[in-house]
Amino acid sequence: MKRLFLILIFTIPLGALAQQTLRLEECFELVTDNYPLAKQTGLLENQVQLDIEALRTGYLPKMDLNAQATYQSDVTSLPIELPNVTLEPPNKDQYRATLDVNQMIYNGGLINASSKVKEAASKVNQQQLEVSLYGLKSQVNSIYLSVLLLQENQALLQAKEEQLKARLEDVKAGVKYGTLLGSSEKTLEAELLKLRQQFTELRYNKLELVQRLSLLIGMELSSNVNLERPAVFMSETQSERPEIQLFDLQKEQIDFSSKLISKTNLPKINAFAQGGYGNPGLNMLDNSFKTFYMAGLKLNLNIFDWNKTRTEKQSLEINKEIIDTQKETFELNNNLELVKLKSEIDKIDALIFTDREIIVLREDILKTAESQLNNGVITASAYITEFTNLYEAKSNLNLHETQLLLHKIQYEITKGSYYNN
Length: 421
Hints:
By secondary structure, the chain is α+β, with helices and mostly antiparallel strands. It has a single domain, classed as Outer membrane efflux proteins (OEP) (Up-down Bundle). Helices cover 64% and strands 12% of the residues. It is built from 9 helices and 6 strands. A 4-stranded antiparallel sheet has the order 2-3-5-6, with no helix packed on it. Helix 3 packs across helix 5 (110-176) and helix 4 (40-56) packs antiparallel against helix 5 (110-176). It is rod-shaped, with a radius of gyration of 41 Å. It is found in: Cell outer membrane.
């Protein structure tokens, strides 16, 4: 038998023997890395690189191959006749194939300004992603601490069960020797069955929450995973939520868009060249297929745009003012939430202080009840009442301590200073 036990020990993987443990900080990191939305980070980076690469092709020469064949109802002709000169009018059917090359020489920095706008837009998208992922921390915090509460309640139920079993043994001895009624034994056994129901309910509730947490963080968790109680300290420093940075980046994007608009009215210079083959060529009076070419420079300057540029800039300035109001609204609502959470923290602190006083009194009452039960002064039902009262007080303390932890962590998350990556 001993040999079989040793074989089993060495064949079972070490991971199966060791209980899985998890910390809240790890959950925050895992949800940020594994949540499906997090995949957009790399996609957004690739997208902006491709967009900028496409814009920079504007620095390269543009080549177009064109070909056409036409038939026209009339052609150019001279109304006079010259002596000893025969002028043939152009053919009504004409053919032309050309290769056109355009090279941008100067465009007022339009491409560079467009690239800046793309980069700014990408930063805004990345920060919006950060805001969404940061919002998951509240959800993770709530589920994690709910599991932690069930975990601690399970330990409390186990202690309650052990104490009840010990009391049942004493009652059995009293029933055996005729000092206690048999109904006392049955009362305690019924209470133990109720405890088993509570264990069953707790186990299924914990399993559901663990599965939800597992899906959120993208990590397989065992049903008996052990969650560590997080340590949290109320920081005095004022941190910023990622939403604040998002508002700033949105205004920065507007500034780059305004600069881009300014570039649209600057002069643009292009060099061009055209080579071709057609009938007629450049000489319209020569009715034969000829090769031809031309080259030159082209200047484009919009001298009056009917105040379009100014109007667009004014619209962008209004957008900046809108963002400022959104930022102020967010900060106000965030501060309101912080005040509410701080009030809850103070209230729960006071409840915990009272919980501990109640437990001390209930423990004294239960000791008296135990003695009275053993001496047949009270019934098992009366003992169970005091026994239940004590563990309800301990359960309330567990609940309040976990709620306090939940609100403290939520306070730091709301302020933007708790595990803000």
